[in-house]
Prior knowledge:
Layout: E1 7-12, H1 22-27, E2 32-39, E3 43-44, H2 48-57, E4 61-67, H3 76-87, E5 92-95, H4 111-129, E6 134-137, H5 139-145, H6 149-154, E7 157-160, E8 179-189, E9 195-201, H7 261-274, H8 276-294
Parallel strand pairs: 1-2, 2-4, 4-5, 5-6, 6-7, 7-8
Antiparallel strand pairs: 1-9, 2-3, 8-9
Helix pairs in contact: 3-4
Amino acid sequence: MTTNNYYKGYDISACQNSNFSWQAIVDAGQSFIIARNGVGSNQLDGCYARNVAGAKSVGLSIMCYNVIYPLSNDDPAKIAAYHYKASEGIPSAIDLEYPLPQDWKARGISAASITQWTLEYLQAYTALGGVKPLFYSYPSFFQALNLPQSFADTYGLWIASYTSAPVTAKPWTNDQWQVWQWQGGSAAKLSNGSPVDTDYCKDLSIFAVGSVQPVIAPPPPVPVINTPDPIVEPINLIPEAPAPVVQDPNPITATATVSAPSNIITEVEGALQNNPGILTAVQNVVVKIIQKLFHIR
């Protein structure tokens, strides 16, 4: 099988220490590092932070792996949170190869319980960072588990197969892998003399932070308030003409008949001559008025 089109890398842990040359790894043609992070329910790899920093310093792609022990008395979601917190958000893989199948019965576990525990761990881990971990193991362990097809449909495969071509197991097919661990420290050594596992990878994009991001709801849009434009009354700079006075075509005209003064005197004189008693009465009244005015008795 030709591997010319694959990227080469190492998976490392505290077993190799950290006193080796990172530049020598790059000079050896390696493109990525998979560093151990969590171990079981309560342990972390003591060299993880230094390995991540060293890989970053020379531009290597980085992934972490967490060793899980799917025992019935451990909470998978709690352990997933413990591992994720220590991972610094770097894409990850799970390493499932313990307990050995021959020890399952003695530990009170089964293929079904391991499958369920592992599924809960993977779902909890994915929910925390939005990145689905790869699934690492070897063919005979997968055969003992007999995982459902949904695992292959959901999670990528990192297969340990020390053969000339990768051999997988159901539910994955032989060409359905992302990382292939093809040597288990039997050939390659770091600059400090420590043996190291060697791997091939088809696509380095799986090492990108946030390569599978959770769906984030967009922020709600800012409401647009449609305020109507104010109604501006037009300013009339030309004064209005006064309303025309409408003349009544048929005005009512009051008329008075005024007699001339000469006519009045004539009428009074005629009345006195025809009624002499009136003149005497008037004279008496005039006399009384004069007496009152001048106090004459």
